[in-house]
Amino acid sequence: MADVPLVAVAAEAGISRSTLLRRIGGSRTALDDAVRAAGVDPGGQASVRERAIEATARLLGSDGLRAVTLERVADGAQCSVHSLYAAFGGRDALLYAVYEQYSPDVDVDTVLEAPQQGLEETVRSVFRIVADAFQREPRVLPAVIADALARPGDPAAQAVYQKALSTMVENVGRWITAEIAAGRLRDLPLLPLVQQMIGPVFSYFLLSPIYERFNQVSLPNPEDAIETFTEAFLRAAAIPAPEA
């Protein structure tokens, strides 16, 4: 539609181009809006699918999962709700498309597979990667976790969650196993040790936007929180080096 000149539209309507412009307010914006409202993408910009994914990611980052209604997405994407149904089939498929595109890789293996830099610095580096994943804009990772927790029986929601986080958990577990074998971490059950390591930092960055609204709570800055979590994990799980 964007490639059709106004003179051709006017000829099809049996009026002059100047009359057409007068009737639509001086520019083709109103005409494009009317075409869009009828469920047709007039073109001349990114596809409905691309615009909807971007608009949904913005909504997730600013207002959270519950704010993502098809009406608000359509408004942000400058399309009709009908166009969203045509592109995605429904809200769930739209969310999964956003998760696929914007879920950050919690790429801890770049640290864990690098030459060892010491137990304390490795733990601290892993926490920084997790913190970066939670704070990266648009903030989609919290929505992925919330959706997975809200729908534990939904295979699609669980598949997205596993894609975003399972590799990180597997790599951390493999690293912890090697550290236990090397005598640097206590020989404790693996899953509780993984949770002991990444659970607190997950909780901090997932819930910080909520805690910030509590007047009686004073949150440490992210770097101070990382230092606290590093010290706490090492006190709980590390084997002290033998004294000389």
Automatic annotation (TrEMBL):
Keywords: DNA-binding, Transcription, Transcription regulation. GO terms for molecular function: DNA-binding transcription factor activity; transcription cis-regulatory region binding. Residues 69-88 bind DNA. Gene3D superfamilies: Tetracycline Repressor, domain 2. Residues 46-106 form the HTH tetR-type domain. It comes from the Bacteria. InterPro entries: Homeodomain-like_sf, HTH-type_TetR-like_transc_reg, HTH_TetR, Tet_transcr_reg_TetR-rel_C_sf. Signal peptide: none annotated. Pfam families: TetR_N. This is TetR/AcrR family transcriptional regulator. It comes from Streptomyces subrutilus. The lineage of its organism: Bacteria, Bacillati, Actinomycetota, Actinomycetes, Kitasatosporales.
